[in-house]
Amino acid sequence: MDKTLTIINGCREKNQKYQKIFYDRYRGYALKIVFRYIYNYEEALEVTNDGFVKFFLQIEKFRCEYEADIEKMLLGWIKKIMINTAIDLLRKKMLLPEIGGIPEDVWDMKDKTASAEEMVIYKDLIMLVKKLPPALRIVFNMHTIDGYTHIEIAEVLKIPTGTSKSNLLRARELMKKYLNQKELLTACSI
Fold first, then answer.
1. CATH topology of 1-111 equal to that of 131-190?
2. Domain boundaries, the chain
3. CATH class label, 1-111
4. Which of 35, 90, 109, 173 has the most crowded Cβ, counting Cβ within 10 A?
5. Which residues of the chain have pLDDT under 50?
6. For residue 120, what pLDDT is reported?
7. DSSP for the chain?
8. Which CATH architecture has domain 131-190?
9. What tens digit of pLDDT does each residue of 9-32 get?
10. What is the reported pLDDT for 92?
């Protein structure tokens, strides 16, 4: 815990050594968040790097009352910055679908926040979420995975709350369809 605090304080002092340690430590976590929104590896990497720049520029605003909660608070803050940075790019691209994919070796990237089993499940989930149209994928990610309310989603995406709700409903229907297809394929291959 105090190691995390030392790293954060070093980043506040704009010490490049601590910024590099911080980046190396949380890069895998941040990149996996961005992958849920941006499915092109090069763009996801760029968004992740932009998110870290924003983080380092705003680190003075980071506060945590209880040192025991610092890691949890920090991960939440990183997550929010990465999501907002990804949505900014998607908005700029007018929610056009990405062309490309994620190289297999990226899934092996270290993420100290997840176990090996969680990473396999996460990879399968992301592969299914990727199939959703961009507008549905964003709402699904924000609501189901990241825990945003429909009001918060509407605010961030600048859409009516009803649109958020209907996009989530359509996304869930498609995800059920994809899961049923995946189960059917798995059953046929056994």
1. no
2. 1-111, 131-190
3. mainly alpha
4. 35
5. 1, 97, 99-100, 107
6. 62
7. -HHHHHHHHHHHTT-HHHHHHHHHHHHHHHHHHHHTT--SHHHHHHHHHHHHHHHHHHGGG---S-GGGHHHHHHHHHHHHHHHHHHHHHHHTTTPPP-S---GGGGGS--TTS-HHHHHHHHHHHHHHTTS-HHHHHHHIIIIIT---HHHHHHHHT--HHHHHHHHHHHHHHHHHHHHHHHHHHHHH-
8. Orthogonal Bundle (1.10)
9. 999 999 999 999 999 999 999 998
10. 84
